[in-house]
Amino acid sequence: MPDSRQYKVFKIEQGTVIDHIPSPRGLAVFRLLSKNKNSLISIGLNFDSKTLGKKDLLKFEGKALSKKETDKISLIAPEATINIIKGSKVIEKRQMDIPEEIHGIIKCLNPNCITNIEKLETKFRVIEKKPVKVACHYCERNAVVVPDMVDKGE
Ligand SMILES: [Zn+2]
Fold it and tell me: Which CATH number applies to 3-95?
């Protein structure tokens, strides 16, 4: 399916399109952004993709995503691209920017980690980027980031 057709499926005038989310991560990405309750949101699942096999996509009408929101998305869908739409045209394409270090945002999976016992802010080193794999600064536990680790608040 060519890209142009996907944009016709639910075209938006102005807003943000998160494209190339590997299926089935689309709904997990949506849940991370569910604070945006007032936006008109379209969700597309299981589009054919040459690079990903199947991909999901999300469209937020009239919504510009914050840096923190983009950071969260990058952790569970590093392949995703952000398209900024104005006047029904893509005016900017952003690749995900995965930081070297992550503060807060995700929690450590080790129940004995000090960050879980003393409610410290978490700190992780990124050791792989696709998928995103992190090492806890405090207990050294390594983990591939899964949606359940990511904080859904702001
Ligand atoms: Zn830890």
Answer: 3.30.70.140
Q: What is the percent of the chain where pLDDT is above 70? A: 91
Would you say 101 and 123 are in contact if contact means Cβ atoms under 8 Å apart?
A: yes
**CA of 128 relative to ligand 1 center, distance in Å:** 17
Tell me how far apart the alpha carbons of residues 94 and 20 are, in angstroms, rounded to a whole number: 12
Is 101-149 in the same CATH topology as 3-95? Answer: no
> What's the gap in Å between 116 CA and the centre of ligand 1?
8
Q: How close is the Cα of 122 to the center of ligand 1, in Å?
A: 8
Mean pLDDT of the chain: 87
Q: Which CATH class is domain 101-149?
A: mainly beta
Q: For residue 26, report the distance from its CA to the centre of ligand 1, in Å.
A: 27
C-alpha distances in Å from residue 97, one per residue of 58, 75, 102: 18, 9, 12
Q: Who's near 139: CB < 8 A, 6+ residues apart? A: 108, 110, 112, 113, 114, 115
- How remote is the CA of residue 101 from the centroid of ligand 1, in Å? 14
What is the Å distance from ligand 1's center to 97 Cα? 23
Instruction: Tell me the domain boundaries of the chain.
Output: 3-95, 101-149
Output the pTM of the full model: 0.80
